[in-house]
Specification:
The protein is an alpha+beta fold. The protein contains six helices and eight strands; from the N terminus they run H-H-H-H-E-E-H-H-E-E-E-E-E-E. It has two domains: about 60 residues, no CATH class; about 100 residues, Ferric Hydroxamate Uptake Protein, Chain A, domain 1 (Beta Complex). It is elongated and about 55 Å long. It starts with 11 loop residues before the first helix and ends with a strand.
């Protein structure tokens, strides 16, 4: 599905490990191994947790192989290829990002939009920070740090809740983002929407 993407970029590492580890005895349907790995090779991984989950699959192993690992035999090994695991340097040109926050679920409904100018290569988190700096009454937000990077807990004073099964859902052109706000890098004139949603 979706040119090799399995779930999203965060779930790819564990999915590839599982598919490789079980392919000999469990094959509910055919999957394109090369296509899936091409998605991984093309992505600039930045979160340590995502790297830790995808690296075993890239060397043909899974977490299941740890029990039989011979550390002495691997001390002189070197990577067989250069993997694109670290971010590329961007240019200093500015881009314009359209940013909208919407709530039609709880309390007083709202729909606010702004255009933010940031350096090319900026993350969505930076876009949100600039929007909040320029208009804190409307675009203020809070995050909490997780193993996967910053997680947006509230925007405009409205917080998600596990009790209500609500959260802030981020989309681009109506499609869910496959990365978190700390790593996703919007393109020039991209429209990012934060929609208060249920799961």
């Amino acid at each position: 599905k979706r040119n090799g993407m399995i779930g999203n970029i965060y779930s790819m590492g564990l999915a590839l490990q599982a598919l490789e580890a079980t392919r000999k005895f469990y094959a509910p349907r055919k999957w394109d191994c090369a296509q899936a790995f091409s998605v991984v090779y093309a992505h600039d991984y930045q979160q340590p947790m995502a790297m830790a989950q995808v690296l075993p699959a890239l060397v043909g192993s899974s977490y299941l192989d740890v029990a039989g690992l011979d550390c002495a035999a691997t001390k002189d090994m070197s990577p067989s290829q250069q993997l694109p695991l670290f971010p590329k340097l961007g240019t200093h040109a500015s881009i314009h990002v359209y940013y909208t926050i919407t709530n039609t679920l709880q309390g007083k409904h709202f729909n606010y939009s702004t255009t933010v100018t940031v350096p090319r290569g900026s993350t969505l988190l930076r876009v949100m920070e600039v929007a909040a700096e320029e208009n804190p009454q409307t675009f203020s937000f809070q995050t909490e740090q997780t193993f996967w990077g910053p997680y947006v807990t509230s925007i405009h004073g409205l917080a998600g809740s596990t009790d209500d099964r609500t959260y802030w859902h981020f989309l681009s052109a109506g499609n869910a983002l496959e990365e978190g706000v700390g790593t996703y890098k919007p393109q020039d004139r991209e429209h990012i929407q934060a929609v208060f949603s249920t799961y």
